[in-house]
Structure formats: structure tokens, C-alpha cells
Write a structure and sequence with these properties.
By secondary structure, the chain is an alpha/beta fold. It has helices at 11-19, 25-33, 37-52, 93-101, 123-136, 147-156, 161-171, 186-192, 199-211, 228-245, 271-284, 295-298, 300-305, 323-326, 337-345, and strands spanning 55-59, 61-64, 110-113, 141-144, 175-176, 215-222, 248-255, 290-291, 313-316, 350-353, 362-363, 366-367. The chain has a 4-stranded parallel β-sheet. The chain has a 3-stranded parallel β-sheet with strand order 9-1-10. A 3-stranded parallel β-sheet has the order 2-3-4, covered by helices on one side. The structure holds ligand V47. Ligand V47 binds next to strand 6 and strand 7. The site of ligand V47 has 22 residues, from strand 6 and strand 7.
Length: 372
């Protein structure tokens, strides 16, 4: 394969990527360590186009965060508050249902529901909330609760992960988002999220969800105190679980936002690192279908460029975002459908509106896969 590679250590990796051969731990380290971002992006784009052609996915979704009260006090987080904090909020069931229908005229296909680990909200409360959402919005997919929230609810209900997830499915949960994975290295977790479940437990909840038929996403938080080895180790652990279950739909690299967190001294990630993480993920995670460039986290501009560095998704309209904005994100809280279309088209990709399970959305007789 003839491309201008500055860093000759990348040549064997390019050959493997072109031939569809699985990359290993050392390849992952080389990809993270090389300054030759264009070569890494070229390889990731090769894989991305082999999987998805010229398509970039987006969806029309709404985030709902029922509470920011959280017992965990993770150093990485600016969203979670103590119950006594005057700024903390917890929605009533009615407020959660009202929020779901609030302020958006376009047809939402997904509610993304996540929040803090509230000491008093029970599994029954969440089940009632999901039942109420399904009653009011029967066609909207519920992507709700991270592995961390599920482990917390299970412990409080003295139930197994399987029992807890089965009850959530019964109440209407259709899939799980990928948050809360942070970085699997225990040395780092002890510093950035010491009260959160261990890496093994995050993986076990994901495994249980997949075995019960739920699709989930997965994430990695980068740009804090982790090193390149930790990143590669994290990605390969996700790849191993995916070999076993096939339950991950999308991987979302999450850039750490330090403002208002206990790690506010950590410098913000750069565009170079953000693109590198998209590209390396696309190359290492050969068994996870989608890599999402989450525009809230990356900015719409970088999410657009990422469509040429391995990503095939930009996420959605969102409407209201708290986790990143509490941590200093300067992006908008919402993008309209038309803005997502423009962003994708101007990266030379063909926009496809998808539902949460990556099926093209049809509105009436029009499939938005064909848009002029
Ligand atoms: O779970 C928390 C992380 C996640 C900070 O599954 C932080 O489709 C950066 O998981 N700086 C929430 N990150 C976002 C998330 C997500 C977003 C979009 C789509 C999907 C999906 C999932 O953000 C949290 C945590 O891992 N986070 N605080 C922070 N200061």
C-alpha cells in the first residue's frame, strides 16, 4: 500500500489494517505514540469506509438526567452533587415525564436517561419512571442507566445484576448507554473515581446485559492521568468482551473536561489527541461496529473532521446536556436536525438518521438515507 508514511514503524500496522488483520497491544502503543496523525487517520478511515462506506449516522434524541445527587463524589465529575448541596436537584416522576416531552418539536426516537447514584431512589422508582415514559412515548427507545447505576441499584435492591436488568427490561428499558467505564486501570480509578464500581464489575454488568439480549455502548475517558498503556489495555478489554458477547454497538471516546472538578489542574485535551483517540479506537476495536464522535464532547467542528479519522457517527440532537456543561463544555446543549445534516454533508459524508439500534429511520414515506 502506497501512502506517505513519515513514521516507518507504522508500515506493518498499515499492512495489517489493509488486510483486515487484528492489531495487538504493541500496535496500539505504537499508534498512540506516533506523531504521524495523518497516517493513523488514513488507516482508520480505510477501516471505517470498509465498514460503513460513505455514511455518517446521527439520531434525534433527548437526554434526561433525573437527578444529579450522587454518593460517589468522583474526582473526575462536576455533575454529581451531595444531597445537601443547595444546587442539587432530583426530579419527581411527573417532572421526569414532563422533561421528556419538553421543548422539542421534532420527533425524538431516543431518550438517553442517566444520572447520579441517589441514596434514596430505588429500583422500583426507576421502573415506575420507565413505565411512565413508555406509556407516554411508546415509540421512543429508552437507552437508560449506565453499568454503574445498574450495579448501584442492584446492591440497594439486594438483587443480582441479572434480576435487576430483567426488571428494567420489563419496565421498558431497551438498551444501555456506555458511560461510567472511565478507564479500567485500577491505579487510575483509585484516583479519579475511587467510589465507583471496579473495572471487573463494569464488565460483568455489561456482560450480563448482553446475555439478556440488551445492546449497550461503551466508552473510555481519556486525557486525565492515564497513560498510553492504560488506554490500550482499556480498549483491548472491551474488545475481549465483545468477542464473547457481541453486545456493544458503539464505542465513544470521552475527552476529560476538568473545569469544576477536583482535577481542574489537568490541562484540557487537544484536537490532536481527540482525533488520535477516534482513530486508534477504530483500528483496535475491529469487532465493535460504530465509533461515535460525540459532538458535545469534541465540538461540532472536530466531530466533523473525525468523520475522516475513523468515526461514523456524531450522536444526536440531545436538547439538554448537563454532565459536560457542568465540567466547562463550551459547546451548545442542542443541535437541530438540519445542523447535524449540514455538518455531516460538509464532511463529504452521506447523513443517515438512525434509531438507537442503527436502523435507518423512516418518516412517513421518506427514508432519510436519501437526502438531497
Ligand atoms: O458516564 C463525567 C463521563 C459520561 C466527566 O452511550 C466526564 O451513546 C469528561 O457516557 N469530563 C457521560 N467526561 C457521557 C456518556 C455518553 C455520551 C454520549 C453518548 C453515550 C452513549 C454516552 O461522561 C459519564 C462519564 O464517564 N464524564 N464527568 C468530565 N468531567
Amino acid at each position: 500500500m502506497e501512502i506517505a508514511i513519515e513514521d516507518q514503524r507504522l508500515q506493518p500496522i498499515l499492512e495489517k489494517a489493509a488486510a483486515g488483520v487484528r492489531l495487538d497491544y504493541e500496535d496500539g502503543l505504537t499508534l498512540y505514540r506516533t506523531p504521524d496523525l495523518l497516517a493513523v487517520g488514513y488507516m482508520a478511515n480505510l477501516v471505517r469506509e470498509r465498514l460503513h462506506g460513505n455514511v455518517t449516522y446521527f439520531n434525534v434524541n433527548r437526554h434526561i438526567n433525573p437527578t444529579d445527587v450522587c454518593v460517589a463524589s468522583c474526582r473526575l465529575c462536576a455533575f454529581g452533587k451531595r444531597a445537601k448541596d443547595p444546587r442539587a436537584y432530583t426530579m419527581s416522576l411527573e417532572q421526569a415525564w414532563e422533561t421528556a416531552g419538553d421543548g422539542y418539536s421534532e420527533a425524538v426516537t431516543e431518550f438517553h436517561v442517566v444520572g447520579g447514584l441517589h441514596p434514596e431512589l430505588t429500583l422500583d422508582w426507576y421502573c415506575e419512571m420507565f413505565r411512565g415514559l413508555k406509556q407516554r412515548f411508546p415509540r421512543v427507545h429508552l437507552k437508560a442507566l449506565t453499568m454503574v447505576e445498574i450495579a448501584f441499584l442492584a446492591k440497594r435492591a439486594r438483587a443480582t445484576y441479572a434480576e435487576t436488568i430483567a426488571r428494567l427490561i420489563e419496565a421498558g428499558v431497551d438498551s444501555l448507554p456506555g458511560g461510567g467505564a472511565e478507564i479500567f486501570c485500577e491505579r487510575v480509578r483509585r484516583i479519579i473515581c475511587d467510589h465507583k464500581i471496579a473495572a471487573d464489575e463494569w464488565i460483568e454488568v455489561a456482560r450480563t446485559a448482553h446475555n439478556l439480549g440488551l445492546k449497550t455502548n461503551c466508552t473510555m475517558l481519556y486525557g486525565h492521568i492515564e497513560n498510553e498503556e492504560d488506554r490500550v489495555d482499556h480498549l483491548l478489554k472491551l474488545r475481549t468482551l465483545q468477542d464473547e458477547t457481541g453486545g456493544f454497538q458503539a464505542f465513544i471516546p470521552l475527552a476529560f473536561h476538568p473545569d469544576n472538578t477536583a482535577l481542574r489542574h489537568v490541562p484540557k485535551t487537544t484536537g490532536f489527541d481527540d482525533l488520535k483517540n477516534i482513530a486508534v479506537a477504530r483500528l483496535l476495536l475491529d469487532n465493535i461496529p460504530h465509533v461515535k464522535a460525540y459532538w458535545v464532547m469534541m465540538t461540532p467542528r472536530m466531530a466533523q473532521v473525525a468523520q475522516r479519522f475513523g468515526a461514523d457517527d456524531v450522536d444526536g440532537t440531545i436538547v439538554e446536556e448537563k454532565i459536560y456543561h457542568d465540567a466547562g463544555a463550551t459547546t451548545a446543549q442542542s443541535l437541530r436536525r438540519g445542523e447535524l445534516l449540514r455538518l455531516i454533508r460538509e464532511s463529504g459524508r452521506e447523513p443517515v438518521e438512525r434509531d438507537t439500534l442503527y436502523r435507518p429511520v423512516t418518516r412517513g414515506d421518506t427514508t432519510f438515507t436519501v437526502m438531497v
